[in-house]
Amino acid sequence: MAVIVQKYGGTSVGSPERMRAVAERIVAAKEAGHKVIAVVSAMGDVTDDLVRLAAQINPEPPERELDMLLATGEQVSIALLAMAIHSLGHEAISFTGPQVGIVTDHGHTKAKILEVRADRVRDALAEGRVAIVAGFQGVTADGSITTLGRGGSDTTAVAVAAGIDADVCEIYTDVDGVYTADPRVVPDARKIGVISYEEMLELAASGAGVLNLRSVEFARNHGVVIHCRSSFTGAPGTIVEEADNSMEQAIISGVAHDTSEAKVTIRDVPDRPGAAATVFTTMAEANVNVDMIIQNVSEAGATDISFTTPKADLVRARRAADAVVAELGAREWQVDESIAKVSLVGAGMKTHPGVAAQMFRALSDAGVNIDLISTSTIRITCVVEARQVEAAVRALHHSFGLAEGDVSVESVPACGKGE
Ligand code: ASP
Ligand code: MG
Questions:
Q1: Is residue 118 a contact partner of residue 101, using CB atoms and an 8 Å limit?
Q2: Fold observed for domain 3-174
Q3: Tens digits of residue pLDDT in 49-71
Q4: Where are the domains of the chain?
Q5: Residue nearest to atom 9 of ligand 1 (CA)
Q6: Which strands make up the sheet holding 372-376, listed edge to edge?
Q7: CA 233 – ligand 2 centroid, Å
């Protein structure tokens, strides 16, 4: 008998028929002798619809009230799912985030979980019921409803799994796992069987949309094993867990791309101590998320500073850039929205020199120009023109032999093999 958390995304519960199919899957797990906790998202596009509705009333709604509104989407799902399970002759009880004690900070619309009490979940399981928990929502210590940021139900599921010490957190979605690249862009992309937290974090941060980044961080910090799989098939998906040295390690695990960011450049920033601090303090105060940062070589006492930021933050970024230019006496700022990022991720990079060289060569052979580059120990990211990003992903996937049946990175010599 295992304790299993099953998370179902909006598409998986998007209609009464699908909701019923989810109920059947939960009941099957229960009849197999497991204790099941289901965490669900709002049905289909309900959250998007609520965001639009709010915008029609007030283009800049107070965030506390936005959370109050958005949390209703998940409350609909949990009640309907409990009803569906009852109609199959099993006991289920639904809980909102506040009811199961998912305590968060006050960061409305992107709150962080501080504690999961989960007593009522444990009680429900002990009584032989299925516990159904609303994803994406929590409550502050003083009783205000919060939400965890878009896609936050994955984090709820992982946090509940950690809170009740579940054996596995199964994340059911509309794709059947994590792929070596987006299968819509690379038709022969391969499903990854097992991947480490570190690699999954880099892939998620680089635009692989399957798992929410914060949920993977939470899983790593609390040692929760994630099984990401399809709610439409019974096939096994991708396991995300601590790297095991006995595991055969691919040098490169995947290619991710992201078209959601824009590049902001501040021109002719005076080259003196504190200038960069001023730029990024101003951005942080304006709640602008900054991703890649590049500072150019300074000429004649001035330098250009570029960074990438989600397009969703651009209104605030432009306003903050005005303030930066005025405060520092920089020349001007520019925004380029037609960029994209392509990233190569793999733990084997640490010990295999030459991966960067092969990446840049593959991009150049495909006629893709590189604008910015940034790296971590297990990732290399290039900013390229948005219109070339799919060609870039295909070129890298091919160059590193990531397709089904291919062997990985033959052209890159392994470090320390003494050949
Ligand atoms: N319903 C929320 C959203 O659409 C949370 C989630 O789906 O995970 O962002
Ligand atoms: Mg959703």
A1: yes
A2: Carbamate kinase (3.40.1160)
A3: 999 999 999 999 999 999 999 99
A4: 3-174, 248-419
A5: 150
A6: 254-258, 339-345, 379-385, 372-376
A7: 20
